[in-house]
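Consider the record:
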Amino acid sequence: MCDTMTAFLSADHSFFVKNSDRDPAEFQFVYISTDPLKEFREEPFQYQKEEYINNSFQTLKRLTAKYDCPHKAILSKPDWIWGAEMGVNEFGLAIGNEAVFSRGKVPEDGLLGMDILRLALHNCKNASEALEFIIEIIENYPQGGNGSFSGKLYYHNSFLIKDFKMAFILETAADKWAVKNVGKFAAISNAYSIGDDYHSSSTGLDYNLKEKHENKFISFFSKGNIKQQMATKFLQENEYTLKNMFKLTRLHRDNADIKRGMTSICMHPGLLIKSETTSSMVIEYREGNFLTWFTGSPNPCISLYKPLLFTENLEDHPLSSLEYAYKYSKKWREYSRAMIRNHKVFQKDIRSLRDQAEEEMIGRMSQFFSNGESDRKNLQDISLKLAEKYLLSLEDRGIRVNSKNL
């Protein structure tokens, strides 16, 4: 269960935002993919889940053979699939997907929306291209498969597709689809949002997509309508700033410190609810450039956002190494777990340190927008050092993690 949002402050300043809500036992990490086809051949996933390998991945292999996948991308991906929950490529094309539940049968060997998303990032340069690319796939290949790490979750997909100038919502039910053009802002979650207000649709679709196809029983328990309304209300009532986009990902229902269950943007697992926000991403588009901010860890309410730039010689960036990227997110995941265990300490002593660290990194990275040709690598290195400085401050205050888990 996830939430994806976008907001346009002006034609030259906008945001893409996503919380990825997944099984707490599933590991998700942030990675820079510089050679997608090589990665697909040699190490498409870092954890072997036989059901995925024997079903959805076989369909994906047949499809991927058709494409060159020339574009590099920053990805946030579960370790058992090739695809990604969210990402942005070198041209500023960003995509997030959501599970939506239709009344139709979902094939076991269907393509996961996360795999479709990653294919689009590696093969398209802008939102219009990606929209057409994804539509072509769902019209010619089955979508579906089991998207759950430890249980059973079969679904179709909605996508929020954005570039510098425009954004689209694409919602699907098997090979049927509808598109809504985004105006000032939009929010999607785990329920259909397009009714009669679509701008284009698949041939023969001249009806309300939500009314015709949505499985209202499953959608009720996904709480997608509630979360979509919460995000919409926030975007209606707040200024579009980077810090407010961070705040959006950290929203708990009733403004609680921690709200367990399915009704918050920042999701925490409960006794019966086995889902949590496992990774978050905010992309700021401004003055012809874009900058990615990521947590690389669960629970954005207690996590630190860190900046990530496309730099020259991207292959030399440490996060372009699968091994390093895996360990990097694992470290931040363990600190997130420690913060939840010590939440009173976080609220009393650490939250202000976290906010100060983010403020300092935002100040440093503002140079990137004021001078897009500045030394990107130097700015990136400075920010990564500030993130490490923050980790040291946690240890100074008694927040420890089990090194065996790193």
